[in-house]
Amino acid sequence: xxxxxxxxxxxxxxxxxxxxxxxxxxxxxxxxxxxxxxxxxxxxxxxxxxxxxxxxxxxxxxxxxxxxxxxxxxxxxxxxxxxxxxxxxxxxxxxxxxxxxxxxxxx
Length: 107
Hints:
The chain is an all-beta fold. The protein has no helices and seven strands. The protein is 0% helix and 64% strand. A hairpin with a 4-residue loop joins β3 and β4 (46-56).
């Protein structure tokens, strides 16, 4: 999928061939997710993204994302705390809303 900032400017694209997701469903039907992915950023650099979360299986997850990139333009991603709400909209299709408590660059 493609990711944009709050103004609709492209940040990057998830590279599905370079992602892995692991998870377990506990006795209360909650999915505990641990995922790793690679994003190609809008400036052509890459970011390694870790994703850890929990939520009702097949419905939604709350998660924490951490980024690692050498990108100059998107280097601020290395220093922000990102929360995600991941909602299943159809089998194999997700909607991911991201929030940060840190100020983002104004560009």
